[in-house]
Amino acid sequence: MGGNLVSKTKGDRVIWGIVIILTLVSLLVVYSSTGSLAYKYSRSTESYLFKQFGFIILGVLIIYFAHLVNYTIYSRVASILFVASVFLLIYTYFFGVRLNEGTRWIKLPVINMTFQTSDMAKLALFMYMSRQLSRKQNVIKDFKKGFLPIIIPVGIICLLIAPSNLSTALLIGGTSILIMFIGRVSTKHILLTIGIMLIPVIILFTVAVSTYDKKEHKAEAVPAIFSVGRVPTWIGRIQTFMYSNKEDVNEKLYQINQAKIAIAKGSWLGLGPGNSQARNFLPHSYSDFIFAIILEEYGLLGGTFMVFIYLLFLYRCIRLYRKCPYAFGAFLALALSFMLVIQAIANMGVNVNIFPNTGVTLPLVSMGGSSFLFTCLSIGIILSVARNVEQMESPLSPEGGTRIQAD
After folding, report:
1. Domain boundaries along the sequence of the chain
2. Do residues 258 and 281 make contact, with C-beta atoms less than 8 angstroms apart?
Protein backbone atom coordinates (compact mmCIF):
# COMPACT_ATOMS: atom_id res chain seq x y z
CA MET A 1 0.00 0.00 0.00
CA GLY A 2 2.89 2.37 0.85
CA GLY A 3 4.42 1.78 -2.60
CA ASN A 4 1.06 2.54 -4.21
CA LEU A 5 0.86 5.87 -2.36
CA VAL A 6 4.40 6.78 -3.42
CA SER A 7 3.64 5.92 -7.04
CA LYS A 8 0.63 8.25 -6.95
CA THR A 9 2.65 11.06 -5.37
CA LYS A 10 3.60 13.45 -8.17
CA GLY A 11 4.62 17.07 -8.48
CA ASP A 12 7.82 18.89 -7.63
CA ARG A 13 10.06 16.55 -5.60
CA VAL A 14 11.99 19.51 -4.16
CA ILE A 15 8.78 21.04 -2.73
CA TRP A 16 7.88 17.66 -1.22
CA GLY A 17 11.36 17.59 0.32
CA ILE A 18 10.90 21.10 1.72
CA VAL A 19 7.61 20.03 3.33
CA ILE A 20 9.37 17.10 5.03
CA ILE A 21 12.25 19.27 6.26
CA LEU A 22 9.98 22.02 7.66
CA THR A 23 7.67 19.55 9.41
CA LEU A 24 10.66 17.82 11.03
CA VAL A 25 11.97 21.20 12.19
CA SER A 26 8.48 21.92 13.50
CA LEU A 27 8.45 18.73 15.60
CA LEU A 28 11.83 19.54 17.14
CA VAL A 29 11.17 23.20 17.90
CA VAL A 30 7.55 22.88 19.05
CA TYR A 31 8.56 20.09 21.47
CA SER A 32 11.37 22.28 22.76
CA SER A 33 9.32 25.48 23.12
CA THR A 34 6.12 24.23 24.80
CA GLY A 35 7.59 23.68 28.28
CA SER A 36 6.07 26.81 29.83
CA LEU A 37 2.76 26.17 28.06
CA ALA A 38 2.67 22.62 29.42
CA TYR A 39 3.44 23.92 32.93
CA LYS A 40 0.72 26.57 32.66
CA TYR A 41 -1.97 24.01 31.80
CA SER A 42 -0.50 21.16 33.90
CA ARG A 43 0.21 19.01 30.88
CA SER A 44 3.30 17.18 29.65
CA THR A 45 5.43 18.51 26.79
CA GLU A 46 4.98 15.11 25.14
CA SER A 47 1.26 15.79 24.80
CA TYR A 48 2.04 18.84 22.66
CA LEU A 49 4.58 16.82 20.67
CA PHE A 50 1.94 14.19 19.85
CA LYS A 51 -0.59 16.92 19.10
CA GLN A 52 1.83 18.53 16.65
CA PHE A 53 2.61 15.14 15.14
CA GLY A 54 -1.12 14.63 14.62
CA PHE A 55 -1.42 18.00 12.90
CA ILE A 56 1.53 17.10 10.65
CA ILE A 57 -0.02 13.77 9.66
CA LEU A 58 -3.34 15.50 8.92
CA GLY A 59 -1.54 18.29 7.04
CA VAL A 60 0.44 15.85 4.87
CA LEU A 61 -2.79 14.01 4.03
CA ILE A 62 -4.36 17.35 3.04
CA ILE A 63 -1.35 18.09 0.81
CA TYR A 64 -1.53 14.59 -0.72
CA PHE A 65 -5.24 14.65 -1.57
CA ALA A 66 -5.19 18.30 -2.68
CA HIS A 67 -2.34 17.57 -5.10
CA LEU A 68 -4.34 14.71 -6.67
CA VAL A 69 -7.11 17.13 -7.70
CA ASN A 70 -6.72 18.69 -11.15
CA TYR A 71 -5.93 22.35 -10.47
CA THR A 72 -8.62 23.45 -12.94
CA ILE A 73 -11.19 22.33 -10.35
CA TYR A 74 -9.93 25.06 -8.04
CA SER A 75 -10.76 27.61 -10.71
CA ARG A 76 -14.35 26.38 -10.81
CA VAL A 77 -14.86 26.59 -7.05
CA ALA A 78 -12.94 29.86 -6.56
CA SER A 79 -16.02 32.09 -6.83
CA ILE A 80 -18.01 29.96 -4.36
CA LEU A 81 -15.16 29.93 -1.85
CA PHE A 82 -14.69 33.69 -2.18
CA VAL A 83 -18.36 34.45 -1.47
CA ALA A 84 -18.38 31.95 1.41
CA SER A 85 -15.27 33.54 2.94
CA VAL A 86 -16.86 37.01 2.79
CA PHE A 87 -19.89 35.76 4.75
CA LEU A 88 -17.61 33.96 7.24
CA LEU A 89 -15.55 37.11 7.83
CA ILE A 90 -18.71 39.13 8.48
CA TYR A 91 -19.97 36.43 10.85
CA THR A 92 -16.59 36.34 12.62
CA TYR A 93 -16.60 40.11 13.10
CA PHE A 94 -19.98 40.10 14.87
CA PHE A 95 -20.10 36.66 16.52
CA GLY A 96 -16.51 35.40 16.58
CA VAL A 97 -14.38 34.44 19.57
CA ARG A 98 -12.63 37.49 21.03
CA LEU A 99 -8.98 37.28 22.02
CA ASN A 100 -6.74 40.25 22.90
CA GLU A 101 -9.48 42.64 21.79
CA GLY A 102 -9.47 41.11 18.32
CA THR A 103 -12.26 39.10 16.73
CA ARG A 104 -10.48 36.59 14.54
CA TRP A 105 -11.85 33.14 15.30
CA ILE A 106 -15.04 31.15 15.16
CA LYS A 107 -15.48 28.00 17.18
CA LEU A 108 -16.35 24.88 15.21
CA PRO A 109 -19.05 22.72 16.82
CA VAL A 110 -18.50 19.06 17.78
CA ILE A 111 -14.66 19.18 17.55
CA ASN A 112 -14.57 22.37 19.69
CA MET A 113 -11.69 23.84 17.64
CA THR A 114 -11.18 27.53 16.89
CA PHE A 115 -10.91 28.41 13.22
CA GLN A 116 -9.27 31.58 11.91
CA THR A 117 -11.47 32.69 9.01
CA SER A 118 -8.80 35.00 7.58
CA ASP A 119 -6.77 31.87 6.67
CA MET A 120 -9.59 30.61 4.47
CA ALA A 121 -10.28 34.11 3.12
CA LYS A 122 -6.76 34.75 1.84
CA LEU A 123 -6.63 31.33 0.16
CA ALA A 124 -10.03 31.92 -1.48
CA LEU A 125 -8.99 35.43 -2.53
CA PHE A 126 -5.82 34.31 -4.29
CA MET A 127 -7.67 31.51 -6.05
CA TYR A 128 -10.29 34.02 -7.21
CA MET A 129 -7.62 36.59 -8.17
CA SER A 130 -5.77 33.99 -10.24
CA ARG A 131 -8.99 33.13 -12.05
CA GLN A 132 -9.78 36.78 -12.74
CA LEU A 133 -6.24 37.58 -13.92
CA SER A 134 -6.27 34.62 -16.31
CA ARG A 135 -9.68 35.58 -17.73
CA LYS A 136 -8.99 39.32 -18.03
CA GLN A 137 -5.60 39.26 -19.79
CA ASN A 138 -7.04 40.70 -23.01
CA VAL A 139 -8.49 43.72 -21.17
CA ILE A 140 -6.10 43.81 -18.20
CA LYS A 141 -4.97 47.40 -18.91
CA ASP A 142 -8.56 48.70 -18.90
CA PHE A 143 -9.64 50.31 -15.61
CA LYS A 144 -13.27 49.15 -15.60
CA LYS A 145 -12.97 45.79 -17.36
CA GLY A 146 -9.56 44.68 -16.14
CA PHE A 147 -8.57 46.47 -12.94
CA LEU A 148 -11.81 46.87 -10.98
CA PRO A 149 -12.87 43.17 -11.14
CA ILE A 150 -9.53 42.32 -9.50
CA ILE A 151 -9.02 45.12 -6.98
CA ILE A 152 -12.58 45.16 -5.61
CA PRO A 153 -12.38 41.58 -4.19
CA VAL A 154 -8.96 42.42 -2.69
CA GLY A 155 -10.41 45.55 -1.08
CA ILE A 156 -13.42 43.67 0.33
CA ILE A 157 -11.29 40.96 1.99
CA CYS A 158 -8.70 43.41 3.35
CA LEU A 159 -11.37 45.74 4.78
CA LEU A 160 -13.14 42.83 6.49
CA ILE A 161 -9.92 41.44 8.00
CA ALA A 162 -8.27 44.76 8.97
CA PRO A 163 -10.44 45.66 12.02
CA SER A 164 -9.32 42.54 13.89
CA ASN A 165 -6.03 41.68 12.16
CA LEU A 166 -4.39 44.64 10.42
CA SER A 167 -1.07 42.87 9.85
CA THR A 168 -2.72 40.04 7.89
CA ALA A 169 -4.72 42.56 5.84
CA LEU A 170 -1.51 44.45 4.97
CA LEU A 171 0.27 41.22 4.01
CA ILE A 172 -2.65 40.19 1.79
CA GLY A 173 -2.75 43.66 0.21
CA GLY A 174 1.00 43.67 -0.44
CA THR A 175 0.96 40.17 -1.94
CA SER A 176 -2.03 41.09 -4.13
CA ILE A 177 -0.21 44.13 -5.52
CA LEU A 178 2.80 41.96 -6.35
CA ILE A 179 0.61 39.42 -8.17
CA MET A 180 -1.19 42.20 -10.06
CA PHE A 181 2.17 43.59 -11.20
CA ILE A 182 3.22 40.17 -12.50
CA GLY A 183 -0.25 39.76 -14.03
CA ARG A 184 0.36 42.82 -16.27
CA VAL A 185 -2.08 45.15 -14.48
CA SER A 186 -1.45 48.77 -15.48
CA THR A 187 1.38 50.35 -13.45
CA LYS A 188 -0.58 53.58 -12.91
CA HIS A 189 -3.49 51.59 -11.45
CA ILE A 190 -1.09 49.73 -9.12
CA LEU A 191 0.53 53.02 -8.01
CA LEU A 192 -2.95 54.44 -7.34
CA THR A 193 -3.73 51.42 -5.15
CA ILE A 194 -0.45 51.75 -3.24
CA GLY A 195 -1.15 55.46 -2.68
CA ILE A 196 -4.59 54.72 -1.24
CA MET A 197 -3.19 51.92 0.97
CA LEU A 198 -0.47 54.19 2.34
CA ILE A 199 -2.91 56.87 3.56
CA PRO A 200 -4.13 55.00 6.70
CA VAL A 201 -0.61 53.63 7.34
CA ILE A 202 0.90 57.15 7.26
CA ILE A 203 -1.87 58.42 9.53
CA LEU A 204 -1.17 55.65 12.07
CA PHE A 205 2.58 56.37 12.06
CA THR A 206 1.94 60.11 12.41
CA VAL A 207 -0.37 59.59 15.40
CA ALA A 208 2.10 57.12 16.95
CA VAL A 209 4.96 59.65 16.72
CA SER A 210 2.88 62.62 17.90
CA THR A 211 1.49 60.79 20.95
CA TYR A 212 4.81 59.49 22.25
CA ASP A 213 6.79 61.49 24.81
CA LYS A 214 10.45 60.90 23.91
CA LYS A 215 11.72 62.59 27.06
CA GLU A 216 9.65 60.49 29.44
CA HIS A 217 9.78 57.41 27.17
CA LYS A 218 6.06 56.76 27.45
CA ALA A 219 2.96 56.96 25.29
CA GLU A 220 0.45 59.73 25.77
CA ALA A 221 -3.32 59.48 25.44
CA VAL A 222 -4.52 58.79 21.90
CA PRO A 223 -7.08 61.27 20.48
CA ALA A 224 -10.68 60.06 20.88
CA ILE A 225 -11.13 59.64 17.12
CA PHE A 226 -8.38 56.98 17.17
CA SER A 227 -9.67 55.20 20.27
CA VAL A 228 -12.04 52.86 18.43
CA GLY A 229 -11.54 49.12 17.98
CA ARG A 230 -7.93 47.96 17.82
CA VAL A 231 -6.53 51.28 16.58
CA PRO A 232 -4.83 52.04 19.96
CA THR A 233 -3.21 48.57 19.79
CA TRP A 234 -1.82 49.29 16.30
CA ILE A 235 -0.48 52.65 17.44
CA GLY A 236 1.07 51.03 20.51
CA ARG A 237 2.85 48.41 18.39
CA ILE A 238 4.27 51.10 16.11
CA GLN A 239 5.53 53.04 19.13
CA THR A 240 7.06 49.88 20.61
CA PHE A 241 8.83 49.18 17.33
CA MET A 242 10.08 52.72 16.80
CA TYR A 243 11.28 53.35 20.35
CA SER A 244 12.27 49.86 21.48
CA ASN A 245 15.93 50.85 21.65
CA LYS A 246 15.21 53.04 24.67
CA GLU A 247 15.77 51.87 28.23
CA ASP A 248 12.17 51.06 28.87
CA VAL A 249 10.65 48.46 31.16
CA ASN A 250 7.27 48.74 29.49
CA GLU A 251 5.52 45.37 29.14
CA LYS A 252 5.12 46.02 25.41
CA LEU A 253 8.89 45.60 25.02
CA TYR A 254 9.00 42.33 26.93
CA GLN A 255 8.58 40.03 23.92
CA ILE A 256 11.08 41.97 21.82
CA ASN A 257 13.69 42.00 24.59
CA GLN A 258 13.29 38.29 25.31
CA ALA A 259 13.63 37.52 21.58
CA LYS A 260 16.83 39.61 21.46
CA ILE A 261 18.22 37.72 24.45
CA ALA A 262 17.44 34.39 22.76
CA ILE A 263 19.14 35.47 19.52
CA ALA A 264 22.21 36.78 21.39
CA LYS A 265 22.59 33.51 23.31
CA GLY A 266 22.32 31.49 20.11
CA SER A 267 25.33 33.21 18.52
CA TRP A 268 26.67 31.34 15.46
CA LEU A 269 25.97 27.68 16.22
CA GLY A 270 23.29 27.84 18.93
CA LEU A 271 22.88 26.18 22.30
CA GLY A 272 21.78 22.88 20.77
CA PRO A 273 18.38 21.14 20.35
CA GLY A 274 16.20 21.41 23.46
CA ASN A 275 18.56 23.79 25.28
CA SER A 276 16.57 26.98 24.83
CA GLN A 277 16.33 29.16 27.92
CA ALA A 278 14.14 31.88 26.43
CA ARG A 279 11.28 29.41 25.99
CA ASN A 280 10.57 29.85 29.71
CA PHE A 281 10.22 33.61 29.40
CA LEU A 282 9.18 34.34 25.81
CA PRO A 283 5.37 34.44 25.30
CA HIS A 284 4.12 32.50 22.26
CA SER A 285 7.55 30.94 21.72
CA TYR A 286 5.80 28.02 20.01
CA SER A 287 3.99 30.18 17.43
CA ASP A 288 4.67 33.90 16.79
CA PHE A 289 8.24 33.83 18.18
CA ILE A 290 9.31 30.33 17.19
CA PHE A 291 12.06 31.70 14.91
CA ALA A 292 13.77 33.24 17.96
CA ILE A 293 13.88 29.75 19.52
CA ILE A 294 15.39 28.37 16.29
CA LEU A 295 18.07 31.07 16.40
CA GLU A 296 18.79 30.34 20.07
CA GLU A 297 19.07 26.57 19.67
CA TYR A 298 20.59 26.36 16.18
CA GLY A 299 22.29 29.75 15.92
CA LEU A 300 22.76 31.99 12.94
CA LEU A 301 23.59 28.91 10.87
CA GLY A 302 20.17 27.38 11.61
CA GLY A 303 18.38 30.67 10.97
CA THR A 304 20.16 31.10 7.63
CA PHE A 305 19.18 27.55 6.69
CA MET A 306 15.51 28.37 7.37
CA VAL A 307 15.70 31.49 5.18
CA PHE A 308 17.33 29.38 2.44
CA ILE A 309 14.56 26.76 2.62
CA TYR A 310 11.79 29.33 2.14
CA LEU A 311 13.68 31.04 -0.70
CA LEU A 312 14.22 27.65 -2.34
CA PHE A 313 10.49 27.01 -2.08
CA LEU A 314 9.81 30.38 -3.76
CA TYR A 315 12.36 29.61 -6.50
CA ARG A 316 10.72 26.27 -7.30
CA CYS A 317 7.31 27.94 -7.48
CA ILE A 318 8.62 30.70 -9.78
CA ARG A 319 10.11 27.95 -11.95
CA LEU A 320 6.70 26.26 -11.96
CA TYR A 321 5.06 29.58 -12.93
CA ARG A 322 7.36 29.85 -15.95
CA LYS A 323 6.73 26.25 -17.04
CA CYS A 324 2.93 26.20 -16.64
CA PRO A 325 1.31 26.77 -20.08
CA TYR A 326 -1.99 28.09 -18.74
CA ALA A 327 -2.49 31.41 -17.00
CA PHE A 328 -4.65 30.24 -14.10
CA GLY A 329 -2.25 27.54 -12.93
CA ALA A 330 0.74 29.85 -13.29
CA PHE A 331 -0.88 32.70 -11.32
CA LEU A 332 -2.25 30.30 -8.69
CA ALA A 333 1.13 28.69 -7.94
CA LEU A 334 2.85 32.07 -7.81
CA ALA A 335 0.18 33.77 -5.66
CA LEU A 336 0.08 31.01 -3.04
CA SER A 337 3.88 30.76 -2.88
CA PHE A 338 4.26 34.53 -2.47
CA MET A 339 1.62 34.45 0.27
CA LEU A 340 3.51 31.77 2.25
CA VAL A 341 7.00 33.19 1.75
CA ILE A 342 5.98 36.78 2.56
CA GLN A 343 4.29 35.46 5.72
CA ALA A 344 7.52 33.64 6.63
CA ILE A 345 9.60 36.79 6.03
CA ALA A 346 7.17 38.82 8.14
CA ASN A 347 7.39 36.33 11.02
CA MET A 348 11.19 36.18 10.90
CA GLY A 349 11.38 39.98 10.56
CA VAL A 350 9.30 40.46 13.72
CA ASN A 351 11.49 38.00 15.63
CA VAL A 352 14.65 39.95 14.80
CA ASN A 353 12.90 43.32 15.34
CA ILE A 354 12.94 44.45 11.70
CA PHE A 355 9.13 44.78 11.61
CA PRO A 356 6.52 45.70 14.24
CA ASN A 357 4.83 42.79 16.00
CA THR A 358 2.33 41.22 13.60
CA GLY A 359 1.18 37.98 15.22
CA VAL A 360 1.64 35.89 12.05
CA THR A 361 2.97 32.35 12.32
CA LEU A 362 5.95 30.71 10.60
CA PRO A 363 4.44 28.50 7.84
CA LEU A 364 4.71 24.74 8.51
CA VAL A 365 6.87 25.34 11.60
CA SER A 366 4.72 27.09 14.22
CA MET A 367 2.49 24.91 16.40
CA GLY A 368 -0.48 23.48 14.53
CA GLY A 369 -3.86 25.11 14.15
CA SER A 370 -6.12 26.30 11.33
CA SER A 371 -3.22 28.32 9.89
CA PHE A 372 -1.07 25.17 9.68
CA LEU A 373 -3.80 23.21 7.87
CA PHE A 374 -4.55 25.98 5.37
CA THR A 375 -0.82 26.28 4.69
CA CYS A 376 -0.83 22.57 3.87
CA LEU A 377 -3.84 23.04 1.59
CA SER A 378 -2.04 25.87 -0.23
CA ILE A 379 1.03 23.69 -0.77
CA GLY A 380 -1.20 20.86 -1.97
CA ILE A 381 -2.73 23.17 -4.59
CA ILE A 382 0.74 24.29 -5.71
CA LEU A 383 1.75 20.62 -6.08
CA SER A 384 -1.45 20.01 -8.05
CA VAL A 385 -0.24 22.56 -10.61
CA ALA A 386 3.22 20.93 -10.55
CA ARG A 387 1.69 17.48 -11.10
CA ASN A 388 -0.27 18.72 -14.10
CA VAL A 389 2.84 20.35 -15.61
CA GLU A 390 4.77 17.14 -14.97
CA GLN A 391 2.13 15.11 -16.83
CA MET A 392 2.23 17.47 -19.80
CA GLU A 393 6.02 17.15 -19.98
CA SER A 394 5.95 13.36 -19.62
CA PRO A 395 7.51 11.60 -22.63
CA LEU A 396 5.21 8.62 -21.99
CA SER A 397 2.25 10.58 -23.30
CA PRO A 398 2.27 11.79 -26.94
CA GLU A 399 0.24 14.81 -25.87
CA GLY A 400 2.16 15.29 -22.65
CA GLY A 401 -0.97 14.72 -20.54
CA THR A 402 -4.41 16.23 -20.57
CA ARG A 403 -4.44 19.99 -21.13
CA ILE A 404 -7.55 21.49 -19.66
CA GLN A 405 -7.97 25.24 -20.06
CA ALA A 406 -8.61 26.70 -16.65
CA ASP A 407 -10.02 29.99 -17.80
Report:
1. 1-68+251-393, 70-185
2. yes
